[in-house]
Amino acid sequence: ANEAFAVQVAVAAAKAGASHVVLCDTNGGSMPWVCEAGTAAVVRALSAEGLDKKCRVGTHAHNDTSLAVANSLAGVRGGARMVQGCVNGYGERTGNADLLVV
C-alpha cells in the first residue's frame, strides 16, 4: 500500500527488461478506487520514462472482500492491459478474479 515504492519498483523492473509488471492485491483488501489510482500512477511513470511500449502493466486481485472483479476492472480503467484471474474465480483462500465475469 505504498504507492511511491510500487512505482519505483515497477520502473526499475521495466528498466531491467521486464515485459510486464503486475500490481497485486494479494490480501484482497483493497478498494477499487485505490487499485485504479495505483495502476494509473505506474502507467504514468512508465510513460514518463518512455517504457510504456516495452513494459505492460497488469493486475492480479484476490477475492477476500468480494472485490476481485471490481478491482481488476478498476485496474483496467487505470491502464492495465493484462488481467490475471481464474475460471470461476477458483484460487487461494477465497479465490481470484473470475475471468468469466471480467
Describe the 3D structure.
The chain is elongated and about 35 Å long. Helix 2 (32-48) runs parallel beside helix 3 (68-77). It has helices at residues 3-15, 32-48, 68-77, and strands at residues 20-25, 56-61, 82-84. 39% of the residues lie in helices and 15% in strands. The mean pLDDT is 94. The chain has a 3-stranded parallel sheet. The protein has 102 residues and is an alpha/beta fold.
Inertia-based shape: elongated
| Sequence of strands across the biggest β-sheet | 1-2-3
What fraction, in percent, of the residue positions are helical? 25-40%
Oligomerization? single chain
Order of helices and strands: HEHEHE
Number of helices: 3
Which range does the strand content fall in? 5-15%
Structural class: alpha/beta
Q: Overall mean pLDDT score?
A: 94
* Biggest beta-sheet profile: 3 strands, parallel
- Rg is 13 Å
Number of strands: 3
Distance from N terminus to C terminus (CA atoms, Å) equals 24 Å
Poorly predicted residue ranges: none
